[in-house]
Amino acid sequence: MTGPSGVGIGWRSEIDGFVAGLPGLRFVEVVAESVPAGGPLPAGLAALRQRDVAVVPHGVRLSLGGTEPVDPARVAHLAAVAELVGAPLVSEHIAFVRAGGLEAGHLLPVPRSREAVEVVCANVARAQAELPVPLALEPIAALFDWPDEELDEADFLTEILDRTGAGLLLDVANVYANARNRGADPVALLDRLPLDRVAYLHVAGGAEHGGFYHDTHTDRVPPAVLDLLGEVCARHRPPALLLERDGNYPPAPVLRAELDALAAASGFPVVT
Question: What InterPro entries does this protein's entry cite (predicted)?
């Protein structure tokens, strides 16, 4: 799967100026639903494209894990945004966001059952048939598991990837959050994941609340997640990794330091 390379950052209008000032930036990711399918691109994204910075649309509303077939209009929007930005690939979540016509407004975990594998694979196939570029799938962070699950996380994910041919968007912070909240070893999970299928990595910050670790995207990346990033890259370094930040933006020097820390932990060149 041809995709982005190097260290990137999630493009948000609030940090447009900061992102524009990163001299070594090779790619950004944008929430697909925030971009009008018919254009025009936000000026900051258009300027990055003129610099040959790759733009990856990241979908949050396809509901690939929902029992209802994916909405053709949502797939068409993701496809149109991919064409608009000249994307090398697009990404979405193994999750559901709606059921019975109701929108959750949040990424919800899919039960790890044989039936759920069939549902996800069918929806991924429907999306892939309409998308102009490859699709990478991201397992989410979840605060609970469904009862009576038939597969563990590694087997569930591997079967979906094998059957669909999709790439893997591995969120290192999600791996850390899920393992910590389950009392499991995140490194043990890494050793069972198909890391050779990783299209790129996500890294994000989080914080503990009420005894659970929450993948907030508004806090700094903790040392434990940086250590886990190093473990991933020591096993199979993917072509790219991206810092997700969705609010509570720190001063520019702090954000630069966080990007530098990702580069140091992974062995990628710095972008600052």
Answer: MbnB/TglH/ChrH, Xyl_isomerase-like_sf
0.85 surpassed by pTM: yes
Residue 1 binned pLDDT confidence (cut-offs 50, 70, 90): low
Residues 263, 203: Cα–Cα separation, whole Å: 11
Q: Tell me the CB-side half-sphere exposure of residue 258, using CA atoms within 13 A.
A: 24
Torsion of CA 191, 192, 197, 200, to 10 degrees: -50
By the 8 A CB rule, do 194 and 163 touch? no
Give first-to-last CA distance, the chain, whole Å: 27
What architecture does CATH give domain 6-266? Alpha-Beta Barrel (3.20)
State CA 33 to chain mean position distance.
14
- Write out the two tokens for 252: 């520019």
CB under 8 Å, gap of 24 or more: what pairs does 186-189 form?
Answer: 186/228, 187/228, 187/231, 189/153, 189/154
Tens-place pLDDT, residues 248-266: 999 999 999 999 999 999 9
Condensed to tens digits (0 to 9), the pLDDT of residues 29-38 reads 999 999 999 9
Q: CA 210 to CA 201: how far, in whole Å?
A: 28
Q: How far apart are CA 5 and CA 19, in angstroms?
A: 16
Q: How far apart are CA 204 and CA 84, in angstroms?
A: 27
